[in-house]
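Support reply, case 0932

Customer input (verbatim):
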Amino acid sequence: MKDETAVLHVQARAPFELYYEGLASSVSATNKVGRFDILPGHADFFSIINPGAVVIETDGEEINIPISNGIVTVKEDQVLLFLNI
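Our regenerated output:
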């Protein structure tokens, strides 16, 4: 059974800009293999992100960040996105 209280702790930033920092229910982006989603409980993960958009789903809001490139790391529901680097 899924824990409905589980959330992701997300920080999405560029070298000189913080796009988002806070809780989220999911993060979506695209890498070389295709579109992927990060949900609470996701396995540890590292990937280069392709140009397009990163979508962060929060409680009732969708944050859409256009990007030229980036990397993502996931560890224990902590998601770090380094974008437009």
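We compared this against your earlier run and they match. Two observations from our side: The chain has one domain: 8-83. Residues 8 and 43 are 12 Å apart (CA to CA). Please reopen the case if you see a mismatch on your end.
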